[in-house]
Amino acid sequence: MELDDIEKTNTTNVIIKKSTFNKLIIGIVTIAIISAFLGGYVLGSETNTPSDILKDSKKASSQTPTNQPQSQPDPYQSSKKIQGSINFEVPSFVRFIGDESAPVSIVEFGDYQCPFCKRFFDQTEPEIKKEYIDTGKVKFYFLDFVVNGVDSFTLAEGAWCAEEQGKYYQYHDYVYSNQGKEYSGWGTPENVKIFAIDLGLDVEEFSLCLDSKKYESRVQQLTTLATNLGSTGTPTAFIGNSENGYTKITGAQPYEIFKNIFDKYLE
Predict the structure, then answer these.
(1) pTM of the predicted model as reported, rounded to 2 decimal places
(2) Distance separating alpha carbons of residues 225 and 229, to the nearest angstrom
(3) pLDDT above 90 coverage of the chain, percent
(4) Which range has the worst mean pLDDT, 30-34, 120-124, 129-133?
(5) Are residues 117 and 21 in the same domain?
(6) How many angstroms separate the CA atoms of 242 and 237, rounded?
(7) b or e along 86-119 (b: 16 or more beta carbons within 10 Å of the residue's beta carbon)?
(8) Same domain, 241 and 140
(9) Which of 46, 53, 103, 264 could form a disulfide with 82 if both were Cys (CB 3.0 to 4.6 A apart)?
(10) pLDDT, tens digit, for every residue of 54-68?
(11) Domain range spanning residue 23?
């Protein structure tokens, strides 16, 4: 501050000239705006809402057409039969729901702790099952894609131990119906064994299977497959068949998105 900016009076008060005062106000306001911006950025980065997933997937769709079909009018809204861009084989050990001869498959890669996978399970999967799986048009596969740590691995291994007793999808449905909060400890081996009791499984046999880590490598194999197919989060679904290839859908999209693609493959 320059000396001529300050006028001394007969008292001990110091009077700041108007021009200098205005400069100070502008400086304070500028600092406040910058602080608010940075604060908002940090706070925003800590959240991951369903709308964020849809926004991210829409951005991805502008780069990769198979990611978000609703933003790509062609080929999904054309009169031509759809042609997928991804080819792969579902491992033979993976069980499915539906008619074996169904011409179209939906392959979901999911994590049992993933809240968006639960949203898909609650809101979208029932309609798909009613309209396409139960009618013999589509068969459904669930494959592990572990992204949420150790408990997610345990939950996935538990599904394969349940499969030994013929209850893979019963376990799948039970876990998603009773899903706890991510990283809250609800997927520990002790809790998973309680799930086995609720499902009427032979708990001793189930516990031996789970404790032995018998299916750890299988869960890792499926997670690696998801990554190799370009999956970056859960849920990720692939719709199609070996003849026409598969189309990827990222995120817990609404039923209408899946319906549109199913119908194109079924033409």
Answers:
(1) 0.70
(2) 6
(3) 67
(4) 30-34
(5) no
(6) 15
(7) eeeebeeebebbbeeebebbbbbbbbbbbbbbbb
(8) yes
(9) 264
(10) 333 333 333 333 333
(11) 3-45
